[in-house]
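Folds abound. A case:
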Amino acid sequence: MSPRRIALIQGHPNPGRAQYGHALADAYLRGATASGHTVKSIEVAELSFPLLRSQADWGKGTLPPTLQPAQEIIGWADHLVIIFPLWLGTTPALLQAFFEQVLRPSFAFHCSPGGVGIQPALKGKSARVVVTMGMPAFLCRWFFFAPGVSNFRRYVLGSCGIGPIHGTYIGKVEAKDSRAREQWLVKLQKLGSKGS
């Protein structure tokens, strides 16, 4: 595979580096850069931005200056890798608020003539969503059908034209021993080396 431009989005709302998701992101980064891919990182917890409170602000308001670099990175990238913990069955609120701000009309999609329907503006980009959780991953995916993650993939990323979108689900993270954690780090490094 030819070298890719990758946006690595760390979506854990805790700005500290003690979370397992940060180790996963570091492993992916090591694999990607060693294989010649170019990676630009976005740490959502380190960004300061207001919440959107109206449809008018989302549709006609301006992007906060603190998020301009993040939007530019997403526009530059061929591939997005988004890492976050499953909170209450879906993305953490801070990560959702980040995408609500960044994926605005005219950047992520354009309204069709007459105002009916949208034309995705981020076609040609792919994504991988890496989700950590306390429950077993198979239970989330096959019993509960992971509705929060599915909605994020379909309605947040997919509606902008991003695809294909692959998922990596890592369950029982608090219960994993060091060997199991290391195995997942190896898997993420391999995904990074493939730019996948």
About this structure: Residues 178-194 form the longest helix (17 residues).
